[in-house]
Amino acid sequence: MKKLLSVLVFFSLLLFILPGAALGLESVPPEMYGYETEEAPAEKDTELPGDPGEFAESPGGELVDDQGEEQAEEEGEEVAGEQVDEPAEEGREELAEEQMEEPAAEEPRMAGESGPAAEYFDLAPEKTGPALFPSLTGNPAEAAFAGTKFELLLLPELTIGAGNNLLNLEYINADFTGAAGEAEKRRFLRQIKGTGFQCHFNSGARIGMTIGRFSIHLHPWMSGSLNLGEALPVLFFDGLKADSEYSLSRLGVTGLAAAAIDLNYALPTFELANDASLGIGVTLRHLRGLGVAYAVIEEGKIMTNKYSESSYDISKATSFYGAAYDEEFPDFRGQGFFVDLGAIYRQDRWQAGLALRNIGSMNWRGIEGKRLAEPLQGEIITGGPEGPEFAVDEEAFEVKSEDFNSYTHSLPLVLEVHGSYQVLRSLAVSGGLEKAMATGWGYSSSPRLWAGMDWRPFRLLRLNGTIARQQLAWQYDALLQLRLWALWFNLQFSWGGTGFSPEKANSLLISLSTFLHF
User: What's the whole-model pTM score?
Assistant: First the structure.
């Protein structure tokens, strides 16, 4: 009877584990749920909630679950009992004494395992502590800790987003009169201090695959920015004051459409002292330009004297545009090479990361461009018989420019610092700072501070929420990830504004993707 039970237990394990691995039940690496590949010591396990359905990976690379270990232990004890004709208890005691005398008994074993189960392990487990959840930072070094075996985007990951840093539905019927209105207007205009009134648009699709620490993706995307500077919004809402100066710098529009090939690789983690580890990753990006538009006043200002007379001074301005597959631009070409660098340091429950993106340049040829050859200066008419006006003296407005058909520029460098702490096995908190070094091409130079929480109540579900602050506006981000074994589904929704209510929103982003993950 015992032999029959042992055979039944053995075949039940085969029927559960082997089909599960084939169908993707093992698609989520154990470190995605809060532990490293090697198990932590038994005394540490009591700190975090247990999950009997979790799988652990042995140092030899084989997948074993906790329940399977207990069944293997019982199976080994039953088989040991059948090897002798004496009663079960006495047989186990004699067998244990014989195993202690044999050299094989000195081989390392997993904690809590009997002799037969320990034969599957070659090395003793090492303490590595809980592994932190991957974040939404895009740090290239995250691939060093992700543990992904294979991932394939089944449908293109679609992303679309738009927003601005000033206007929202609340200001459609805003009343800036009176003392209260004046205070509201001042708060309203503080949002453009140092950056101007910015609008941005981003959209794209991504498809590709990941194998271990290496990934390749095709990523066509389009982005654009509109910046009215500081002077025009102030002129419109508040008027020009006497003896003042208003910036026209960064006033203009930028737009870029390109198809990118992203190659990401992360080095194997470096083991440091005190059970710490360091991951380093790099992303190489080749951009093939599809279209470009750029018309910006790089340096300019409006000045008023004590009599409220206004003048403008534009010392640097550039404009160019071009498009692929357009008969007007037969020689159009655009290409660029960019590098993203990232590093992540981990120790116990803590993680800290640093990333620098957009190292490189973009080159355009066969475009139509103009560059201001001499400073442009003149008077501004701010009044008239029918009320205040804003106009330029056309007789004095004479632009002297030089033409060009090739242009090289960079995208704004983006510096990102982030960190996280694993509170529980299924819960992590994180935060960080993101800073673009310039405004344009869909980026804002205003620093962005954010904090978030990642919760995985069970294997099939991941929920992530972040809240960010940029200038005087808030941004809220929510991620829903369904893990139907090997089939994963991502839905990301983000909105922002000066408050949480819809009428205060001034930005929106939606991202959707479906992929196969092992």
Answer: 0.70
